[in-house]
TrEMBL record:
SUPFAM superfamilies from the UniProt entry: Periplasmic binding protein-like II
Protein known as: RND transporter
Source organism (scientific name): Acinetobacter venetianus (strain ATCC 31012 / DSM 23050 / BCRC 14357 / CCUG 45561 / CIP 110063 / KCTC 2702 / LMG 19082 / RAG-1)
Residues in the signal sequence: 1-22
The keyword Acetylation is assigned to this record: no
Domain of life: Bacteria
Pfam family, one: AdeT1_2
Keywords: Signal
Length: 334
């Protein structure tokens, strides 16, 4: 009798431990199913089967709609830009802080740290009665400054000019205002249109956006790409952990970490395809001036609670590890 009871219990326990969950994930990619981001998530979905979760991916070329469907519970997870995902997790969302990640070496350190097991508690959050978890971070690329007129290559010349910004990112609006520019509120779905048709004189975008958004139309014959990294852009995978198998987030983050080098290799290959005729490099003096302005803005945004203070401290350490002679390394404040 007892043997039969324990045998039945063992079968029940094994059945529970191998139970497969099913989850739907909204995936934003400018290029839809043919884009790099969506293809990464297809690989991820295959791996998720080994973590006892069947994933149904839903493709979106409109990021706002992807987030809306996630908010309404139509998806159990969403893969979108970290700027938009910051409202679910400030720690991971702050990797994209203005001017905080000026090189790919620093970006790789930042993402590796954010996904480290030691930060598991920082990657979980609660909003109201809902729990969220960051299950992955990927690199999109350093966002450079696109200008319709190559003469717009100093801070002073930005004053009064129309700068397209992502309307949901308070940081961009505040920084453009502090530089004396006029913020043109946009979304990823229409920011390039505003630049291309002349509603905006300036915008920031990674190399990944150049071809799909046809930014050559906005640049024309007189435009330029100023290769100063205003911001580093990443993607966050946000999930509702209760909809996934146990330890799913930890397994997922380990997978994202394992593919980080190949992720950066793809991004740098895309960046190498940017037309050389448009590229303008700033002088070292101007770079330092920009960095100082962005540093002041970033510190102000952290005090206002927009960026996570722990992440800001980590990013400064990463910058000063890679560039020990940087002016800020002897300064406090971050």
């Amino acid at each position: 009798m007892n043997k039969g009871f324990f045998a039945l219990g063992a079968v029940f326990f094994l059945g529970m431990s191998t139970q497969t969950n099913a989850a739907r994930v909204c995936v934003f990619d400018l290029l839809g199913k043919s884009g790099e981001a969506y293809q990464v998530m297809e690989e991820w979905a295959l791996m998720a089967k080994t973590w006892r979760t069947e994933i149904d991916l839903v493709s979106y070329q409109n990021e706002a709609q992807a987030e809306k469907d996630f908010e309404q519970g139509k998806c159990d997870g969403v893969y979108m830009t970290s700027m938009r995902a910051r409202s679910y997790n400030k720690f991971a969302g702050s990797v994209d802080a203005i001017g905080a990640v000026p090189s790919y070496a620093i970006a790789q350190k930042a993402i590796s740290f954010a996904l480290d097991k030691r930060n598991r508690h920082r990657l979980s959050s609660k909003i109201g009665n809902q729990s969220f978890e960051v299950a992955g971070i990927s690199q999109i690329g350093l966002a450079y400054i696109y200008v319709k007129d190559k003469k717009l290559n100093t801070i002073e010349q930005i004053k009064g000019k129309k700068f397209a910004v992502l309307g949901y990112d308070e940081a961009q609006k505040i920084v453009v205002k502090s530089l004396g520019g006029q913020a043109v509120l946009s979304d990823i779905s229409d920011i390039a249109k505003k630049f291309n048709n002349g509603q905006a004189d300036i915008m920031a975008a990674p190399a990944y956006a150049y071809k799909p958004l046809e930014l050559d139309k906005g640049l024309g014959n007189d435009g330029a790409i100023i290769t100063f990294p205003a911001v580093n852009m990443t993607m966050d995978l946000i999930i509702r952990p209760d909809k996934f198998s146990s330890n799913f987030g930890e397994n997922s983050r380990a997978w994202f970490l394992s593919r980080l080098k190949s992720n950066f290799a793809v991004i740098q290959r895309i960046e190498a395809d940017l037309p050389a005729k448009y590229k303008i490099n700033l002088s070292n003096e101007d770079k330092t001036r920009y960095q100082q302005i962005l540093r002041e803005a970033r510190m102000g945004l952290t005090k206002r609670g927009i960026y996570d203070a722990t992440m800001m401290s980590v990013l400064k350490r990463a910058r000063c590890t890679v560039e020990r002679t940087n002016f800020e390394c002897s300064l406090g404040g971050e």
